[in-house]
Amino acid sequence: MTMLELPGKFVEFVGAIAAFFWVSFFEDPGAFFATVADSPLTSFFELLFVLFLVGVAATVVGGVAWSAARRSPYPLIRAIEFYTRLFGLAGAWIIVALIGAMVYEVIARYFLAAPTKWAFEVAYMLMGTSFMFGIAYCLQMRRHVRVDFVYNAVGPKARATIDLVGYAVLVPMILWLCAGLWDYFHQAYKVNELSGESAWNPIIWPFKFTFVIGFVLLLMQIVAEALKRVLVLAGREVPEPEATGRLG
Predict the structure, then answer these.
(1) Residues 142, 135 contacting (CB under 8 angstroms)
(2) In whole angstroms, what is the distance from residue 126 CA to residue 187 CA?
């Protein structure tokens, strides 16, 4: 492959990933919407999945419309960051539930001689869910690890350029992960897969859906971060993120 062929191959690769993503998130979810429409009160997890997907669509469409009306990307950025922060805070509170479950397990095991069947599985599911809910918020707060011996030595516009190049490479990979994780979850859902890790043996596909949530939120936050870097290159001021317990 010559250097002249490389851009075309990359575009072809990204197009294939985008098509895979489209099928996963715009065709496969139809079954979940139909299930919830038929029996909304008995399809708890399906309802949660539908609410998440509707929330993503409302955030993006509403943010784009608001930005178009205001002729500014700030409304879209704020809409995305509100949604990712919402899940980040939910992930933080999940740790409280995890602590409660582990304290109960210790008391039940060592003081009541009645260990639970569910402690191990609840622990990794809650911890994994917290992590998935937090990765996009971590990007929003700029807390992901990076090698910064060059990054910190250059100016704001050079940093913005470095970030944009990184996002351009990262976005196709995140699209691929989102689509692949949807398939991973959907296969488990179709066979009502169980964990097989304990005597409790719960269904595992709701936990697998948190992987989808985490990377979809990360994709949304990357879009917001890319827009902020474009604003920096245009000479606009972008405020530093503030880590607070509020959604606004």
Answers:
(1) no
(2) 22
pTM of the model: 0.90
Inside any domain, residue 176: yes
In a domain, 200, yes or no: yes
Rounded to whole angstroms, the Cα distance separating 126 from 98 reads 6
Residue 150 lies in a domain: no
- Looking at the structure of the chain, the number of domains it has is 1
Q: Classify 137 in phi/psi space as left (phi over 0), alpha (psi -120 to 50) or beta.
A: alpha
Q: Is 54 exposed, middle or buried (0-12, 13-18, 19+ CB in 10 A)?
A: exposed
Decide: 223 and 123 in contact? Cβ < 8 Å: no
> What are the pLDDT digits (tens) for 152-197?
888 889 999 999 999 998 998 999 899 999 999 999 998 999 999 8
- Interatomic CA distance for residues 171 and 128, integer angstroms: 23
193-201 contacts at long range (C-beta below 8 A, 24 or more positions apart):
195/121, 197/120, 197/121, 198/117, 198/118, 198/120, 198/121, 199/117, 200/117, 200/118, 200/121
Core vs surface per residue 196-213: b (16+ CB within 10 A) or e: eeeeeebebbbbbbbbbb
In a domain, 2, yes or no: no
